[in-house]
Amino acid sequence: MKAYRASLLWFAPHSEGPVRALFEEDGLLVVGPNAAGVQVVQAIGAWRDLAGQYPGVAVEHLRGRIIAPGFVDLHVHYPQTNVIGSPADGLLPWLENYTFPEEKRFADPEYSAQAATFFVAELLRNGVTTTLTFATSHPESVDALFTQAQAQSMRLITGLCLMDRHAPPDLLNQASAPGRLDAAEQSLLESEALIQRWHGQGRLGYAITPRFAPTCTEAQLRGAGEMAARYPDVWIQSHVAENKDEIAWARALFPQSRSYLATYDDFGLMRKRAIYAHCIHFDDDDRALMRDTGAAAAISPTSNLFLGSGFFDYAGADRVGFQYGLASDVGGGTSFSPFHTMLGAYYVAREGQTKQGLSLSPQHLWWQHTAGAARALGLDGSSGAPAVGNLLPGCEADFVVLNPKATPLLARKTALAANLDELLFSMIVLGDDRLIERTVISQAI
Ligand code: GUN
Ligand code: ZN
User: Top-level CATH class of 71-357?
Assistant: First the structure.
């Protein structure tokens, strides 16, 4: 066991109602192994209340520091690290001119391995300890990322990108040896082999990953949905309703579905543990479909602002009541830093010309990138699943150590904070990787 004395930030349990951050100025966080040997939070609270209960446990005193849950990035593309900051006239030209050419390079296992090493290090450097991420349509790219995440004990979910039409030929899933299996069949076989190899190994999870409906045939979507039914604890990830041209394309390809989102439902791809990136251009029937199926949205504000895709409608989501969390969506997104993403979410929510504008509270923004995102993934301790994104007892001990004096402006501004909301907002607005002094990952013993 080990204990940390510092200021502590965490969240009240979801069962206790609306989002509520908890803060202890002089706190003690005690971590130690659970019955399975995984490092989890044993206790959290005021130092004066807890210190006497753990005699003999080594205490690291982090003066002036804040310990907070590790961040959860609900949607990011590891093969797009080099694509950050590539300008285009919207999503579809951006995919064609920058993203697809870069993703082709991941056919090479060595290219994948060095990109995976950088990606995992960059996430950890930014305080992200759990992520749901895209790879490419090459199985080698999936193996490379899982291998690197395993080496770092990081909780990471990824899967083979399913894409059997409407992309450059060498980026499409490939058919098997001449005449045996077509690309859809082969991609599903490869996905299943990757599930067997990686899903549930330590902290790794698999996600069935149709890129988006326009680059998948009906046969591929149908097969993906059937696999999702056979593996209910595997995740699903895709994109939906991001951009007007994309929506028109999806509607033309799948006219029998009620909406773009409904296309996924028609192929069995909406259920708990299904995470859809963007979810911007929805009507209330789409929102109800998200709610009723238990699917969740990965809100990607820096990406949506950079690509000019639109503004996620928080009021609409909350009125109907579906789950969501925050995501960087690198490389459409412009930063790995959760602080930049939370600030982007504030801008997107505030926008009031195309939908109702809301001023999201800093506690809510922070929750969306930690406990809220973990809940959207089903990693909140319910139904026997592990819990991340929070520091309640039993949660896996993934956390960040923040230095609120990391820059002169942060030091000046955080010193003026009169309450928790002011402190959190100062860090959301002014923070970046410099605020993350250390990232601690739960280890199995
Ligand atoms: N839709 C399909 N593929 C992508 C992608 O790589 N990034 C984004 N932002 N949207 C997509
Ligand atoms: Zn994406």
Answer: alpha beta
